[in-house]
Amino acid sequence: MNYQKILEDIQEQIQPELIKGNVADYIPALKNVKENDFAMSIRLLDGQTFNVGCFDKKFSIQSISKVFTYSMALKIYSKELYSRVWYEPSGNPFNSLVQLEYEKGIPRNPFINAGAIVTTDSLVTHFKDKNIAIKQINDFINNLSKDNILIDEDIYMSELKTGHRNRALANLMKSFSNIKNPINNTLETYFKHCSFMMNTQQLATTMLFLANHGTDPLTKEEIITSSKAKRINSLMLTCGHYDASGDFAFHVGLPGKSGVGGGIVAIVPKKMAICVYSPRLNSKGNSLAGTKALELFTTITGLSIF
Ligand SMILES: NC(=O)CC[C@H](N)C(=O)O
Question: What start-end ranges are recorded for coiled-coil regions in this protein (predicted)?
């Protein structure tokens, strides 16, 4: 298949979508982007790369970081983790509080904010210190991307100041004893890993292990066991787009994870990882043109998991 040509066709067809939707502004520093930007990268298991658009422009990975932290926590805690964070779709927005109250502080899955905050809390506990935890998360991402990935301090500080809802989620979970560390230590670590800056090429590279049964195909290192990789992919399919996860599975048909920075990663098992970037979001907080581009990709190539 001529992936370069396919990406160029998608880029052309996507143009009318690039002016639709809105950039996230509830974290003020996220507004500082070029609103109509578009980039898409494909990385095959053998290392071949195909790119279009501003593929070397770094953007805030936001909730895509939840895939990294969950992979680390699942590796450390295995099934023990499920008593603190479940694996069911929530059917609710990513920052919703309601379900958490009547489900006694156990978040539905690791890809909504509450679940990711618990996951991060488990890493702070394991590494015994918030600074060591963020360093380990950074090392994990550096190893997968073969690059040096950095935090954007402005975005981090912006969310630290305005993340009232995440603070509410953390406090609510603490009241049910599902946050073990001081809330600030856990939230600072969470906000920091949301603020890593990466481009589509780097993100596609980091996701290759999930397309290859848990082993990085470029280095042959086992990042996670194949059964755990299966679980992460299934969570990406069922929960990776919050209350639009069904919609994403319906239209795209791949495990995927979005972030409010405008990025989406998707996995084609045994073949490739894809990343698309376009910062304007739909009403559910997922990249509008990015979702459309991935839908076009599976329509043109027939490469969905179904
Ligand atoms: N969906 C997202 O990307 C949300 C991540 C963001 N840092 C938040 O906690 O609100």
Answer: none
Q: Same structural domain for residues 217 and 160?
A: no
Q: Are residues 253 and 136 in the same domain?
A: no
The verdict on the CB of residue 62 being under 6 Å from ligand 1 is: yes
Query: Any idea what the CATH number is for the domain that residue 296 is in?
Result: 3.40.710.10
95 lines ligand 1 (CB under 6 A): yes
Q: Ligand 1 within 6 A of 259 CB?
A: yes
Q: Are residues 44 and 118 in the same domain?
A: no
Q: Are residues 91 and 189 in the same domain?
A: yes
Asked if 186 and 124 count as a contact pair (C-beta separation under 8 A), the reply is yes
The tens digit of pLDDT for each residue in 50-102 reads: 999 999 999 999 999 999 999 999 999 999 999 999 999 999 999 999 999 99
Give how many domains the chain has, as a whole number: 2
Choose one of 174, 194, 214: the last residue of a domain: 194
Residue 168 within a domain: yes
User: What is residue 92's predicted lDDT score, i.e. its pLDDT?
Assistant: 92
Going by CA atoms, what residue is nearest to atom 9 of ligand 1?
113
- Residue 305 resides in a domain: no
pLDDT bucket at 13, cuts 50 / 70 / 90: very high
- Of ligand 1's atoms, which has the minimum distance to the CA of residue 195? 7
Same domain as 187, residue 132: yes
